[in-house]
Design brief:
The protein is mainly alpha-helical. It has 6 helices and 2 strands; from the N terminus they run ααααββαα.
Length: 173
Amino acid sequence: MKSRYTMFAAYNAWANERLYDAAAPLSDADYRADRGAFFKSVHGTLNHLLLADRIWMRRFTGSGEHPDRLDAILYDGFAELRAARRAEDARITAWVGNLTDTSGTLRYRTLSNPRDIEQPLAPALDHFFNHQTHHRGQAHCLLSGIIGNDATPSLDLIVFQRATGYGGLRTLS
């Protein structure tokens, strides 16, 4: 099971880097424009991705920042947000790399509609990585609308697996 989460942590960092590479050339107006997405803009969506990862990492590790709103803007500037994203991806990768057992339980308090939760660790990790993919998909859609489909990189897991060999994938011919 650990190899699965190691792959997802590496995929997460890879996909985030590709997403940020595509967003970097955007004009500030395009980057911040409310495009009707749940977190409004590319900027808002990228901030939410980092924010949610920090919430979950605090739940997993007991340390780190814990924002108090799901729509908080952690970093107003793209460069600062990207640096923080890279640091969080490194933190996620290191933490997953040090996991010895995914069969435990996790207790935490929800942010929206506060209540106490107990959940097995493995399904919580599944949600953690799936949540990232969900909101990266939203950011990807926003980018596609701004720069076009041909300029927006694929974030498919299989593309990552083919590029890196994760997931036991091997080319036969």
